[in-house]
Amino acid sequence: MNTEKDFSPLTPNIVRALNDKLYEKRKVAALEIEKLVREFVAQNNSAQIRHVIQILATEFALSQHPHSRKGGLIGLAACSIALGKDSGLYLKELIDPVLTCFNDSDSRLRYYACEALYNIVKVARGAVLPHFNVLFDGLSKLAADPDPNVKSGSELLDRLLKFYNNNGNCHYAIIHVLESVPDINLLDYLPEFLDGLFQILGDSSKEIRRICEVVLGEFLKEIKKNPSSVKFAEMANILVIHSYDLIQLTSMTWMREFIQLAGRVVLPYSSGILTAVLPCLSYDDRKKSTKEAASACNHSLMKLVTPEDDVDDEESQTKSSPQSDGSPSKKESDLNGNYCRISTRSLICCVLCSSDRPAVTLDLDGIVQVLDRHLHDSSTGMMTRIAVLKWLYHLYIKTPRKMFKHTDSLFPMLLKTLSDESDEVILKDLEVLAEIASSPAGQTDASGSCDNSDSKTELHIPGCKVTDLSPSTPSMNSYFYKFMINLLKRFSLERKLLEMRGAFIIRQLCLLLHAENIFHSMADILLKEEDLKFASTMVQTLNTILLTSAELFQLRNQLKDLRTQESCALFCCLYRSWCHNPVATVSLCFLTQNYRHAYDLIQKFGDLEVTVDFLMEVDKLVQLIESPIFTYLRLQLLDVEHNPYLIKALYGLLMLLPQSQAFQLLSHRLSCVPNPELMRTVEDPKAPVKDKRLAQPHIDYSELLQHFDRVQSKHLEVRHQRAGRSEHPDRKL
């Protein structure tokens, strides 16, 4: 550069410093330029200001000498800082030479150009909007710059240009600029300013919101027309972070279209989408449109999960880039202070390398974390809880192997959800628990080993001469027995749950799983129950369900005949636990047509403590005998010769009852038995046995009677201990 050329009003010292190869000297020159321009501003000397800018642009920024260009860039930035709010009057002269330097072959110069433009825009702020097109075009060129420093500088400038501004006039100007761009396919750059448009959509001005909605609507139409050219992955998180009240409907509408158009491309963002969508499902009719859009999003997203997502993806994860999912770099996260606000610039870089990206994988861990968080949140609405449980059920169906890695952490909350106020929530919860308990994937844990202690319900029941004592229905997995144990434990701790929802829960489980397995396992667990009062109450509940519920029809028929070893084994298993409740034990004998044994049991009732509760249970049994369940039993009263012990057992119940309505009911029934003389029991030992159950080879009835005596002795001992504590409250046990 010709140093003797007249560069006034710039002094020779300033000119020499601007051309120096050292940054510090160029910086000193910039400070002198800033001081000089401030004086011109104070004098309102615009001619001299323009002259200084022109010299810096033509003689320095556009010079052939690299150090001169660097000096020109820092000088232009200094002019902008000195001009302050007046810089908008000179923006074209300031911006054009800087943008030219964006194309420089020297990466350091491109970086200094970013730095200079950053300072110019930072001072001018909204005044740069009329130059939005050229700025946007320049930034787009730097988005894929190979130099990391240049790319970092462009990202800083990118964030500055996002215009997070509450000024209505600024918002209006931005929209006007977007509407007036004729020569650029803005759909290609939509990830760059979609975030800003949603910010503007929350403007306080109704007119600005209306105009913004129109612009967004036009973009959405274009997206539907050209889905193949849309960068869905880059905009998914933008929709998620803008799913708050004012713009929620628009966000949900876009999200719905994205999921339907992009398909599995959005799967990596599933956890964020669910975070935004799930709360909307519990909205009332005041937000009906938002709720419907959210429901459509939820349904469409759920359909994207397929069995292929259960395939191990470790290999694809090792091949993928750490940034390939569009997540922000550590630097970007630190700058924003908010993980969700992803830099659209870094996303563009990912898309440029999209051909190298692996197949889309499901963010299962993130989804489960979101679902679990909503289950734990007591403020979560009913419809949201139902949707969460539907998601869990769907994931266990489609991706069982991966889901069982999360079962231990989900299981306690699923059990707790059984106490929910909504029957529909409980029903969905039971569906999830039933799938966990019956899925073949549950046979092994995450490490591939099986917990042999709980994997099978192996019973050892004296009194049953059977080699195979397991249920005749298909076996459950390792979680089934764990589920039964914890369910009974919950009933024990929450007696209100047992009283209000116990029957409902057990009946639904009998539909979802195998009724025989449910009763077989519960009976086995209750056999070891230390709380005898709870055991008696639970047996009474199970017995009522067994005798009255339509869901147990098949199981009742299986027990009614006892034709197989399996049915005999089930009877023995139930009997030994049913002994916790004498009346329930008799009713089980009635159900299985073991009338002789029922009579023997009733004979022992004289040795028991007959309480009001006991008599009420006998009263209920009489009512059951008159119900359709025991129609076959009443018809057998016609065959007195072959059912003498049935009649004697019923008379035994009659003798137990006080003069009550139940007494009158049973007495009237027995008075209808034909020819009372045939009620006599044959005493001759050579006479043929009439009660068909006495010839059953698979059951040792004498051992069962002994077991009944032992159980009742335990109950009597516990009652005496309680009575002793009530009489001597200060006595130490």
From TrEMBL:
GO CC list: endosome membrane; PAS complex
Domain of life assignment: Eukaryota
Biased composition (Polar residues): 318-327
Annotated ranges, domain Vacuolar protein 14 C-terminal Fig4-binding: 495-673
Swiss-Prot/TrEMBL GO biological process terms: phosphatidylinositol biosynthetic process
Residue ranges, annotated region (Disordered): 308-334
Keywords, sorted A to Z: Membrane, Repeat
One Pfam family here: Vac14_Fab1_bd
Keyword Ribosomal protein included in the entry's annotation: no
Statement: the UniProt record of this protein carries the keyword tRNA processing: no
Cellular compartments annotated: Endomembrane system
Subunit structure: Forms pentamers. Component of the PI(3,5)P2 regulatory complex/PAS complex, at least composed of PIKFYVE, FIG4 and VAC14. VAC14 nucleates the assembly of the complex and serves as a scaffold by pentamerizing into a star-shaped structure, which can bind a single copy each of PIKFYVE and FIG4 and coordinates their activities. Interacts with NOS1.
Role: Scaffold protein component of the PI(3,5)P2 regulatory complex which regulates both the synthesis and turnover of phosphatidylinositol 3,5-bisphosphate (PtdIns(3,5)P2). Pentamerizes into a star-shaped structure and nucleates the assembly of the complex. The pentamer binds a single copy each of PIKFYVE and FIG4 and coordinates both PIKfyve kinase activity and FIG4 phosphatase activity, being required to maintain normal levels of phosphatidylinositol 3-phosphate (PtdIns(3)P) and phosphatidylinositol 5-phosphate (PtdIns(5)P).
Similarity remark: Belongs to the VAC14 family.
Protein name (record): Protein VAC14 homolog
Species per Swiss-Prot/TrEMBL record: Cyprinus carpio
